[in-house]
Design goal:
- By secondary structure, the chain is α+β, with helices and mostly antiparallel strands.
- The protein is built from 3 helices and 6 strands; from the N terminus they run E-H-E-E-E-E-H-E-H.
- Strands 1, 2, 3, 4, 5 and 6 form a 6-stranded mixed β-sheet that branches.
Length: 137
């Protein structure tokens, strides 16, 4: 499987996701991604077919670049993978996360509970923890 990951700008992102925009989670919708002052958009493609997208918020302190939400506008910041095939999905997750590792010094992002490939991140040396938010009356 020859999947390539590259960084794209907001205009190209809008075009790339136009066919499946309604399936995107809130934090990846084109109309909302500019709420983060600093962000990078990764796209995974096989030829001209979009296989996955990820809008990654960043903060910079000194010369340390961290993938994290500066403000918690949205609950999560996980990628969106466009395949149901487990092996292909894991491969795309691996490629996207490896690309993110190359872009920053630290990663501190909350992933959607339905994101199933945390073992890929653990395999790359990431520390993964599960947290739950509870609302007390």
């Amino acid at each position: 499987m020859d999947v390539q990951v590259r960084i794209i700008d907001t205009e190209k992102y809008n075009k790339a996701v136009s066919d499946f925009k309604g399936k995107l989670p809130l934090w990846l919708r084109p109309e909302f991604i500019d709420c983060y002052r600093q962000h990078t958009i990764l796209i995974a493609e096989k030829g001209t077919q979009v296989m996955g997208v990820w809008v990654i918020p960043f903060t910079t302190r000194g010369n340390k670049k961290t993938a994290r939400r500066e403000y918690r506008f949205f609950p999560y910041s996980s990628p969106f993978i466009l395949t149901k095939d487990n092996l292909i999905r894991r491969k795309i997750t691996n490629i996207l996360f490896t690309s993110l590792i190359d872009l920053c010094d630290e990663i501190n992002l909350p992933f959607d509970p339905s994101f199933r490939d945390l073992s890929i991140i653990q395999g790359l040396g990431g520390y993964v923890e599960w947290r739950h938010t509870h609302h007390l009356s």
